[in-house]
Design brief:
Number of strands: 6
Structural class: alpha+beta
Distance between the termini: 26 Å
Strand content: 25-35%
Oligomer: single chain
Strand order of the largest sheet: 2-3-1-4
CATH class of the largest domain: Alpha Beta
CATH topology of the largest domain: Alpha-Beta Plaits
Low-confidence stretches: none
Number of helices: 4
CATH superfamily of the largest domain: YebC, transcriptional regulation domain
CATH architecture of the largest domain: 2-Layer Sandwich
Shape: elongated
Radius of gyration: 16 Å
Number of domains: 2
Mean pLDDT: 92
Length: 115
């Protein structure tokens, strides 16, 4: 359900999409995604350091830069299911022995606000 990928998030104001696409693909990135306020750069774990170096050399300071477990597909949750999942995620993240939680759910902004 998950695969290990490099994940880098940069602010859209840093560079235009075309400029950033050229920088990261030349360094070995697999994908560049537009996430409304940010760009998400996806890499293989082996190319992560090279892509991160290219981003920094271009004068861009990443908001997030890590190798993590990325879902292969997402599950849409609504209503009661969404509320239950948010409660579970909060409980897991608050637990002292839990360091990182990966999830593959997709919850609308309205459901997140009502939880």
């Amino acid at each position: 359900m998950f695969e290990k990928k490099g994940y880098i998030v940069v602010d859209k104001a840093a560079k235009s999409e075309d400029e950033l696409f050229e920088i990261v693909t030349d360094a070995g990135a697999e994908d560049l995604r537009d996430d409304v306020e940010n760009f998400e750069i996806i890499t293989s774990p082996t190319d992560f350091d090279a892509v991160l170096d290219a981003v920094k050399k271009a004068g861009i300071e990443p908001q997030v830069a890590e190798v993590e477990m990325v879902p292969k597909e997402y599950k849409k949750l609504e209503g009661t299911e969404a509320k239950q999942m948010l409660k579970l995620m909060e409980a897991l993240e608050d637990h002292d022995d839990v360091q990182k939680v990966s999830a593959n759910f997709d919850i609308s902004e309205a459901d997140m606000a009502s939880a």
